[in-house]
């Protein structure tokens, strides 16, 4: 346990955030680790309460409460408090394959349900997690550990996002031979091409992929299953297949003027920006916000990442439309602890927009009704109403040179169902509904991550990848046992 009464006597501190005026000049991570002693002090705030709600990892009132991978938080907090960093790293590694991703970009549902948060500020769990893993890399404690024996079983994992990487890692550790197929030119899924480098720098992803390769996992990039290679081919070459293909079918707006130039899906925009930075590829004019008035349709995290990207590209102005109202400053009575707190916050992109333009870019209850364009077929603006009062008199016209659509995803892409013959549910997700076995309607085919769950979080993708791996292993054991009868 940390320091007696630590949670009352020590002030909560999170990772250091670089000043907005400085960080918008580059594409580096906006958060930085605190010094060792500061993190040890933060760990001292953990009281090792009898029931660590921070670990529960369950859905309460449609939100995530506690850590979905059940990180052993009070245990590693205590080790950090006592300066036993290596032991803390070993404890963290038992449940989390990639703390360097979650320590940077997890929304930390653990903190929302931390017992200390009931009466005071929660423990800075994410800050401590990131420090442990970054220190472990710096000290050289994270080294490849290939399995000592191989089972002779071959598994194909399709997709290399956090779900695919976690699943491959777990199966490889057991000794199975794992090949990860990825249609992009680089592994990482949304960690590589969706999430901007301000949240996760790309060498952090490359470093982990390189470790997995050294441990024996084979990565085949630029291979789209269903296009370059068929499922039939995989069926004969592998003992099991795991679909970790994400939730890539983006939701569209079907409105007058949608085909105008200068209106783009958020994911195309973010991917183009990440590619431009990684390869110095020229940025297509339609994906360059420089000097433009930008409007982002969609009030979620993807929209927020578009705001931060447009700011770094040098946009003239930026507004983000949300469908819902502003969240309350404090938990509503209907949203008690240990549920995830649905409260107003000023996240990184909004702080940057305020610094640059003097106001929060968020507009609430905005319903886009039609797009306006010029004679060259380029967008010039849009007309909105309100989700609150559906009243034509309340229509408003906004000027825009670039409009980004970030209104969410509709499940796995159609090509996955065509290629693998698996069934889908009414939300477009691959049915592998029994969270105990992760099996699809096709024998020997499993699904995990956003493809099965719908668009979610890195930490849920890791959890699903781990559980699907355990289920594949059980399936192979049973198959083996039956073949010996
Ligand atoms: C812009 C954005 C920002 C986000 N920010 C955060 C954040 O800050 N924190 C957080 O926790 N979560 C965040 N998320 C959500 C998080 O990234 C996802 O929940 C997570 O990446 C899902 O992991 P996954 O492995 O299931 O799928 P993905 O990461 O989507 O990976 C799927 C992979 O499968 C590949 N693939 C698809 N079909 C095929 C095929 N037929 N053959 C071969 N390969 C194929 C794709 O190319 C892709 O690489 C964000 C999402 C977006 C879009
Ligand atoms: S993975 Fe996320 S929920 Fe779990 S301990 Fe880390 S920050 Fe908290």
From TrEMBL:
Domain FAD/NAD(P)-binding positions: 154-317, 394-465
Enzyme Commission numbers on file: 1.4.1.13, 1.4.1.14
Class of the enzyme per the UniProt entry, highest EC level: oxidoreductase
Keyword match Mitochondrion: no
InterPro entries, A to Z: DPD_II, FAD/NAD-bd_sf, FAD/NAD-binding_dom, Glut_synth_ssu1, Glutamate_Synthase, Helical_ferredxn
Pfam families reported for this sequence: Fer4_20, Pyr_redox_2
Alphabetical UniProt keywords: Amino-acid biosynthesis, Glutamate biosynthesis, Oxidoreductase
Molecular functions (GO terms): glutamate synthase (NADH) activity; glutamate synthase (NADPH) activity
Functional pathway: Amino-acid biosynthesis
UniProt cross-references to Gene3D superfamilies, sorted A to Z: Alpha-helical ferredoxin, FAD/NAD(P)-binding domain
Dihydroprymidine dehydrogenase domain mapped to chain residues: 23-140
Superkingdom in the source lineage: Bacteria
Keyword Oxidoreductase: yes
NCBIfam families: GOGAT_sm_gam
Annotated protein name in UniProt: Glutamate synthase (NADPH/NADH) small chain
């Amino acid at each position: 346990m940390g320091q007696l009464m630590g949670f009352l006597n020590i002030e909560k501190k999170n990772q250091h955030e670089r000043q907005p005026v400085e960080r918008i000049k580059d594409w580096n991570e906006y958060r930085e680790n605190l010094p060792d002693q500061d993190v040890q002090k933060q760990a001292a705030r953990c009281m090792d309460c009898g029931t660590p709600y921070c670990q529960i990892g369950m859905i309460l009132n449609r939100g995530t409460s506690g850590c979905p991978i059940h990180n052993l938080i009070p245990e590693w907090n205590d080790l950090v408090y006592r300066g036993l960093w290596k032991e803390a790293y070993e404890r963290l590694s038992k449940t989390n394959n990639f703390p360097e991703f979650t320590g940077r970009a997890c929304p930390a549902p653990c903190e929302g349900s931390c017992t200390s948060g009931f009466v005071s500020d929660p423990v800075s769990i994410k800050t401590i997690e990131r420090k442990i893993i970054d220190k472990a890399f710096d000290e050289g404690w994270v080294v490849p550990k290939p399995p000592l024996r191989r089972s002779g079983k071959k598994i194909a994992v399709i997709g290399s996002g956090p779900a695919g990487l976690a699943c491959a890692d777990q199966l490889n550790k057991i000794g199975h031979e794992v090949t990860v197929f990825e249609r992009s030119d680089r592994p990482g899924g949304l960690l590589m091409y969706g999430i901007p480098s301000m949240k996760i720098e790309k060498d952090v992803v490359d470093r982990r992929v390189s470790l997995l390769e050294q441990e024996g996992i084979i990565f085949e990039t630029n291979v789209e299953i269903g296009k370059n290679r068929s499922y039939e081919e995989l069926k004969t070459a592998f003992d099991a297949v795991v679909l970790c293909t994400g939730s890539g079918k983006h939701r569209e707006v079907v409105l007058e003027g949608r085909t105008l130039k200068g209106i783009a899906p958020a994911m195309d925009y973010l991917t183009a920006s990440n590619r431009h930075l990684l390869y110095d590829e020229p940025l297509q004019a339609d994906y360059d916000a420089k000097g433009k008035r930008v409007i982002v349709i969609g009030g979620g995290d993807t929209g927020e990442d578009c705001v931060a990207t447009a700011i770094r590209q040098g946009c003239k102005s930026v507004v983000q439309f949300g469908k819902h109202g502003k969240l309350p400053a404090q938990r509503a009575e209907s949203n008690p602890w240990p549920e995830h707190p649905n409260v107003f916050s000023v996240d990184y992109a909004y702080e940057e927009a305020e610094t640059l333009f003097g106001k929060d870019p968020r507009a609430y209850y905005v319903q886009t009704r039609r797009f306006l364009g010029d004679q060259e077929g380029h967008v010039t603006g849009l007309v909105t109403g309100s989700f609150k009062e559906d009243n034509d008199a309340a229509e408003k016209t906004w000027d825009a040179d670039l409009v980004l659509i970030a209104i969410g995803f509709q499940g796995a892409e159609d090509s996955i169902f065509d290629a693998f013959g698996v069934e889908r549910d009414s939300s477009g997700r691959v049915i592998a509904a029994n969270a105990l076995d992760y099996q699809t309607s096709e024998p020997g085919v499993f699904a995990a991550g956003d493809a099965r769950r719908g668009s979610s979080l890195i930490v849920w993708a890791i959890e699903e990848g781990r559980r699907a791996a355990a289920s594949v292993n059980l399936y192979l054991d049973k198959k083996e046992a039956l073949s010996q009868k």
